Structures are given as C-alpha cells and as structure tokens.
Amino acid sequence: MSDEHLHRAETVIKTANNISAEKKVEFVGLLSRLKSAIGDVSQTHAGDAQSVARLAEASAREATLKRPNQLEKTLRELKRSVDKFEASHPDLVITANEFATLLAEMGI
Known about the structure:
Elements lengths: L1 H14 L5 H22 L3 H19 L3 H16 L6 H17 L2
C-alpha cells in the first residue's frame, strides 16, 4: 500500500504544471529514496510506514494545488510522523525532511 501512495505522489509531481523539469527530477529521486527508506521501516512498523507514505502523497498533492496553509499542515504531520525514527531509521528521517523542505522552499 505504501508503494501506491508514493506512486500517486510521483504522478502528481510529474503532471504538475507549476514544477520545473529539473525540480521534477529531484522530486522523483527523493521519492525513490523515500520508497526504499519506508520499505525498511515497514518491516517492523507497517502502520507507521503507511502513514509516512500517505503523508508524502498528501504533501505532494497540496503543493501542486497551491494551498500553502494545507501544505504547511501536511508537512508538519509528515515531519512528526518520522521524528520518532531518528535513531533507528535515520535515512527515513533525512529523506522525508529533504522532501518536505523541497516542497516548502518551492513556495507553491
């Protein structure tokens, strides 16, 4: 199920008119890394991994819909959902934070 959320996030990013081709490539690379990190977490924390994937999808959707308040809320939720894995799964935390930062910095 996590893969479905990340696939939908990738589709949202790839079809967005307000994201440059270069940023799309960067997003897709981050989503690939995020998929791998979520896969690692899902082995022991399936529900948490699902939540992270769902929030990544929601963040991508909010960013492309240009709803800054909703995006900010969703990004906070994403960050909160990965913070507890800082010690056990640092790759997940780093990648999710990079993804959130890229969305936030775009100002979309």
